[in-house]
From TrEMBL:
<dbReference type="InterPro" id="IPR029063">
    <property type="entry name" value="SAM-dependent_MTases_sf"/>
</dbReference>
<keyword id="KW-0808">Transferase</keyword>
<feature type="compositionally biased region" description="Basic and acidic residues">
    <location>
        <begin position="320"/>
        <end position="338"/>
    </location>
</feature>
<dbReference type="GO" id="GO:0032259">
    <property type="term" value="P:methylation"/>
</dbReference>
<dbReference type="GO" id="GO:0008168">
    <property type="term" value="F:methyltransferase activity"/>
</dbReference>
<keyword id="KW-0489">Methyltransferase</keyword>
<protein>
    <submittedName>
        <fullName>Class I SAM-dependent methyltransferase</fullName>
    </submittedName>
</protein>
<feature type="region of interest" description="Disordered">
    <location>
        <begin position="301"/>
        <end position="338"/>
    </location>
</feature>
Amino acid sequence: MATDSNYASFREIIHLYHDDDLVGALQFLDGLNIPPDITDEDSTSTVLLKTIRKHLRVQLQGETLPLYMDADPFVAFIRGGGNVPLYTSLSATLNQLWTSISQTSSPLQPFTVLDVGVGTGEALLPTLRQSHLKPFIYTAEPSAAIHTTTLSQLAALESDGILSGYNGITASAEALSSDRHSLEQFAGGVDVVQMTFSLQYLSQHRELTRYLKWVRELLLQSKSTKNTNPRFISAEFDVPSVANDHPPLLAEQRIKYIFESYLQGLEEYRFTPTFAAVVQGFLIPVMMSKFDTNLIEQISDESADDDRQNGRKHGKRRKRDGEPKKKEGSLTRERTKEEWVNEVQKAGFSKVELKFIEKYWWGDCYMIIAEP
Ligand SMILES: C[S@@+](CC[C@H](N)C(=O)[O-])C[C@H]1O[C@@H](n2cnc3c(N)ncnc32)[C@H](O)[C@@H]1O
């Protein structure tokens, strides 16, 4: 079956890529003698190989941009495929949660939400349009390119009377929690700290714990100053431990899970006008970064030790002359839903619940809802 032989090729390419041998991976793909152009007759696994080949070419020419520097591919991805039903359910759930949390907060001050890693506001903006609360919104987002467009949308919603105001902070979650004075910016208190698929970007465990503790401190401060019953709410995928971005990166089950899931992901965009942008600009770079040892080594020395104990090579191959370093961008650290609950509880949250949101090709989506 084509998929079986394509899986074997995928596996080979991934091994070469993991060993930092981009040239070897490209040579292997070229040796398969598959025509470069994608046709309607191609199986999705053949399309996957063709798109990886294109990606490696661009990467070897040193032309890849860090993820989210260019907003267009991400926007095309997030507004298509299974993201459409996912975000519809997500915004409806956020609206319900805001409404129920607002019932226990003071009606004298605006309902206040801090959205961290807001991106283009795919979850936040539709929720605002549905909500009757006229809230005050804080946003935090490290990518200035993306944040600028979101802030102009918030300005428009404010002038339409949908918001009572907003304040954007161009910073990462780690930057917020490492700044001793950052709580002062929220002295008026918040009712909700929300995140949708951005908590996974805190790939270093120490940073994740520090950030979650910071969120809890902010919510406790808000509880006393604003007389509210605030919550931390975070949407994430329930991803099997074996598929997570930590060593051993080349575990057979991990490569298989990533191969099979990304075939489904590609399939969702296959015959749409934005296919090339989504796949070359977002899906393939994200997928390849899952095998990038250079990035994984940055996550933690502890993980690297695990990897060494498992006998993995750590990009020790000598680079060919002039060969560029891989630079795929953001690495995530995903978890099973139970592991997410565990992390939040370890940061001191008193009550943590899970709410199922939607099935999705990368994993089922759940909302983690936590009381400080
Ligand atoms: C998958 S997108 C989700 C965006 C948005 N929350 C949504 O649901 O549409 C992840 C977002 O997290 C942001 N991000 C990446 N690293 C981050 C960090 N360390 N702290 C906060 N946000 C981060 C990215 O720039 C991006 O906007």
